[in-house]
Amino acid sequence: MQQNFKKMNIPNNPDILVSFVNMKLRDEYESLEQLCEDLGLTPEELCQNLRNAGYEYSPEAKRFW
User: Fold this and answer.
1) Counted domains in the chain
2) Which of 26, 20, 15 is closest to 52 using CA atoms?
3) What is the residue range of 56's domain?
4) Spatial separation of the C-alpha atoms in residues 54 and 33, rounded to whole Å
5) Whole-angstrom Cα distance, residue 54 to residue 65?
6) At what angle do helices 32-39 and 43-52 cross, to 10 degrees?
7) Angle at 11 between CA 39 and CA 50, to 5 degrees
8) 30-39 own/partner pairs: CB under 8 Å, 24+ apart
9) Tens of pLDDT along 19-59?
10) Cα gap 7→57, rounded to integer Å
């Protein structure tokens, strides 16, 4: 999956990626699904990648922890 991140010009480092995603969710997107659609990923792909780095998504907070 990290290969996909490089092609889309989004951060490959999971710690930077979680910051990037949380910022996008806070400032530009109403939902994780909308963000993932624009990134060309499924929410499952993004969540699994960040879960592998120790982050979990909170739908209530609309952010990864």
Assistant:
1) 1
2) 15
3) 2-64
4) 20
5) 8
6) 100
7) 80
8) 31/62, 32/57, 32/59, 32/62, 39/8, 39/10
9) 999 999 999 999 999 999 999 999 999 999 999 999 999 99
10) 23
